[in-house]
Amino acid sequence: MITSSVLDYTDSQNIEIIGIDENGNEHFINPNARFSSSIIYIGVKINYTSKADGNHLISVFNQSYGMGTLGDAIAIFSGALGGLPGAVVGGFVGLGFNGFRSRCKEGVAAIKAHPSKGAIYMYLDHVTWKAS
Fold this sequence. Notes:
Keywords: Membrane, Transmembrane, Transmembrane helix. The protein is of the alpha+beta class. Helices cover about 40% and strands about 25% of the residues. It is built from four helices and six strands, in the order ββββααααββ. The protein has helices at about 50-65, 70-80, 85-95, 95-115; strands at about 1-5, 15-20, 25-30, 40-50, 120-125, 125-130. The radius of gyration is 14 Å and the shape is globular.
């Protein structure tokens, strides 16, 4: 788990690189781990615990969405979340600018639908929300 400095005060976001297997089970991604089923999704799980946290994440997503180049957008996104591993950043780069911008937009919509607290699961091809 990567503890992030997304927020400007003492609370912090929890950022995890996760994998979802073919049975829908969530796994923390460890390069040395072995799984009994195949990982079919790899993404970023971002927990937020208050409306202020959610609003700050919306700001990060909107800043990333509004950038003129993919590199700048991912730099803001990654930096604001305390850094993301190269494999995840590489996946977003491979997705392309419009795809990454779509994930940011989906993240904003999910947080606005559930402003108080929750977890955003950002994958290369979609974003989901779960109660946390």
